[in-house]
Amino acid sequence: MYLLLVNPEAGGKYFQKIKNQLLATLGRLGVKFDLVELPNLVDVQETLEKHIKVSTAGVVAVGGNATVNAVINLMADEEMPLGIIPIGKTNYLAHSLGIKGWRNAVKMLVDPDKRAQRLGKIGKHYFVGNLEILSHQNLLGKYLRGESLLKKFLGASATPQRNLSVNAKIEIDDELKINGPMQKLQVKLNDDKGGKKLRLELITDTLKNPTKLWGDEIKIEGDKKMPVLMGNEVVAHTPVEIKGCTKYIELLVPKSPVKLTKRPKK
Amino acid sequence: MSKTRADFAGFNNPDTIIGRGVRVEGTLQTAGDIQINGDFRGKLITEKDVVVGEHAVVDANIHGQNVYVAGEVRGDINAFEKIEILETGKVDGNVTASALSIESGGILKGTSTMHEVEAERPETEPTYEVQEIKDEGTPEQDTPAS
To answer: pTM for this structure?
Structure first.
């Protein structure tokens, strides 16, 4: 049995629109569940403690990135798999796991695969996946560079190709120091056991020549505040400390498609 | 055979890269290949190869398997295998390796020490087949009757 934690506010109260369909689909596919609503993500910890049972096969966060992050943050110490039904406006983690839409996610719950992913920490909060740190100017450019008819109509798609750097100070594991201009820093959690836990890719002015380094812990600050992004969502600002943890979380993911191989012709 | 520029460009997917224009200070210790195209000051240690690119300035001692220098190194280099200083390379320090090559135009200001390598010898001792030589005697010769 799954424990479904629903954020009814996610995606502009999208849950209310699909609630009946979602419950019907779960029932039709024979997915057993307990459903608990968490308006505004209040009391997530209490709810989790109250409803989690021995028979719970996994916790499923029903919402967007904020819901998923709130649940991940509390499940770091639980040895229970986490599933996601994306119904938010931003569903970065679900998409990165190959879960496209809530229907796809519900089907996945019938017979999921499990994938252990390393947990990271930004300040005191746990996270899973990749982070990007970039200047506000680059953040604006990132949104405007996305193609859409509306942006074309507004003439916005032709805007900032020029990237503005921020003078940043990055410290890796108290061993390495980098000082200088920075446009973007990507932080990826390395799922391989052994070795360093974070993979860093720093883009300075020379776009064709990134700096690639490894570390367990980084501290970053700039002469201007820079947002820390997960997908398209700002989750923190510099100065910030990011750590790769030794803990892993098991995520429920769709089974990878079986590759059909051609029979050799006789 | 020494590495050509084309080979050097083929070093295309190192685990650790310090990009051009980036300044890094400290101890960089890794198990994979390292490519420095920017400025580095401190200590560089790896079990694999180190490439100091043409525009790089490295103010550090370097330990690696093979070290290729096309930029500037101020410090000692210790390679388990070989050190190659390319035509644009400049090393201001002592180098220790099993093999050293300096292209025309490359500069080494320091001493070079070669690791002692045992003289090559065949893996197995040569064997000789001992053949029994039967003494079949000398052919009888007709001796003229006296």
So the answer is: 0.78
